[in-house]
Design brief:
This protein has 478 residues and is mainly alpha-helical. It is built from 18 helices and 2 strands. The protein is elongated and about 105 Å long.
Length: 478
């Protein structure tokens, strides 16, 4: 094996075309790292700007308590700062989805779903996460990040380097000589393919490690996550190694073998994902947003036409802890009136939102099931899990956002229905969105890695079966 590796290394070093191809792919990998870095860096900057904006708004509002109340302007500012009905006009809290160290390597759904959300007591179920994935290319890849290079371009590099392992020997006239001098020709071919795969794997490792350590998050990299990332990448490339090993054993010339390999790549990377996405669109067609908006507008108008007293009575029935029943309950355009209006609106919109959300969840479940049978999508899903950019991570963000919104509502409602004014201390202790992420399911990553290995071994066994039963032993017909 050492002799074969040394020979292959010298041949690679003396082949300008192979060197050029490797340099080209290194350039693509470097650009993908830069692309993911720039996208994630911009999102981090937006999050920091929102955090600074919130702090500045709190600081400015607290400053209103020192306003000169002897003047009309100063008195107005002081009243705004103390009245709970004004707080959402002065301060805008945000829920933010901060990326981890691997998000720039697998952008996933970060370009599809929002990574921040303004929190308000006026929000309803139809406001939350209404982004769609209607483009098969976005569904499959999303962006030209490092995961795209690993999943779609690195296999092409393997095809370019490995398609002529046997046929080049015949085309150069060295095949008969090589075979006559060795009783272990199959091992030689295996080692030649293995060496070229190691070159690709080494190149991939370098790109992955560099990308991980220059992450724009400026947080310590998780060595455990990096190891799991490299594990799944290794198993995925082993899967493609097995495919190449099978296809070159069909004893075809370079052109035919390369067509076989490219056909396999097209099938797994383009055709099957597009077909299953088409099937999902037919099985679970998306509801037209214009119809939803029209229905929502009608409900808003019907709820707004209700008298304040009726709205508040409905609110008290659902929230007896706020039941004060005082004379202010009949005042139109009061803070209590608006609270009751938005609560009643949410109650009527919730069933519509549930139907929409259930349908979307069914789509996502079906996508997840199909991805288990398509290696490229399984790989994308796994890398997105490590980068916290998969769909489940956004479900977790949505749930965290809704939980924080409930705390925010309670904070404001307590002041409104108790007819209390805010003090400086209240602004200093107001709820803040905690920075948290969904836990990475390492068990699922290991299972996917094992499945890639088993699938690769199955392909190798198939190659052995085909070779021995056809009694060809990787010989090429003269």
């Amino acid at each position: 094996m050492k002799t074969i590796f040394l020979f292959e290394w010298k041949k690679l070093a003396r082949t300008p075309l192979s060197i050029s191809i490797l340099v080209f792919f290194i350039g693509l990998g470097a650009y993908s790292i830069y692309y993911g870095y720039s996208i994630t860096k911009k999102q981090i900057q937006v999050i920091h700007d929102l955090e600074n904006l919130h702090k500045e708004q709190v600081k400015t509002t607290i400053g209103y308590f020192n306003a000169d109340t002897t003047t009309h302007k100063g008195k107005a500012l002081y009243n705004k700062a103390t009245q709970p009905g004004w707080i959402e006009h002065l301060i805008k809290p945000f829920a933010t989805f901060y990326p981890n160290s691997f998000s720039s390597m697998a952008i996933g759904h970060r370009d599809v779903y929002p990574f921040y959300k303004e929190i308000s007591t006026k929000d309803n179920s139809l406001h939350v996460f209404d982004a769609d994935i209607s483009n098969p290319e976005i569904l499959i890849a999303g962006n030209f990040d490092l995961s795209f290079v690993i999943i779609y371009l690195i296999p092409l590099l393997m095809i370019v380097l490995c398609h002529n392992i046997i046929s080049e020997e015949k085309e150069l006239g060295t095949f008969i000589l090589l075979k006559s001098q060795s009783n272990h020709f199959r091992k030689i071919i295996f080692y030649k393919l293995f060496f070229r795969t190691l070159i690709v794997l080494t190149l991939t490792y370098i790109l992955n490690i560099v990308a991980a350590y220059i992450s724009p998050t400026n947080t310590p990299i998780s060595i455990l996550n990096l190891l799991y990332w490299l594990l799944i990448v290794t198993c995925y490339l082993f899967f493609w190694f097995a495919i190449c090993y099978l296809l070159i054993s069909f004893q075809k010339n370079s052109i035919v073998t390369s067509l076989y390999m490219i056909g396999s790549w097209l099938l797994l990377s383009i055709i099957l994902p597009s077909l299953f996405n088409f099937y999902i669109d037919i099985s679970y067609p998306k509801r037209i947003k214009a119809d939803m908006a029209s229905e929502k507008r009608k409900i808003e108008e019907s709820v707004w036409d209700l008298e304040p007293k009726v709205l508040l009575q409905k609110f008290y029935n659902h929230h007896p802890e706020y039941n004060t029943q005082n004379s202010n309950d009949t005042i139109k355009y009061s803070s209590k009136h608006f609270v009751a209006y938005y609560d009643a609106l949410e109650k009527q919109l919730a069933p519509i939102a549930k139907v929409h959300k259930d349908r979307e969840n069914e789509r996502k479940k079906l996508m997840s099931k199909f991805s288990e049978f398509i290696p490229t999508l399984k790989m994308q899903k796994t890398l997105n899990q490590i980068g916290n950019t998969d769909f489940n991570s956004y479900i977790y963000f949505e749930e965290s956002t809704l939980s924080f919104q409930k705390k925010w509502k309670k904070f404001i409602y307590d002041f409104i229905f108790k007819d209390e004014n805010l003090q400086v201390s209240d602004y200093l202790t107001m709820p803040e969105y905690p920075e948290n992420r969904s836990q990475i399911q390492y068990k699922g990553i290991v299972i996917n890695a094992v499945e890639f290995i088993l699938l690769a071994l199955l392909i190798i066994l198939l190659q052995t079966y085909v070779t021995y039963n056809s009694n060809k032993y990787l010989t090429i017909k003269q």
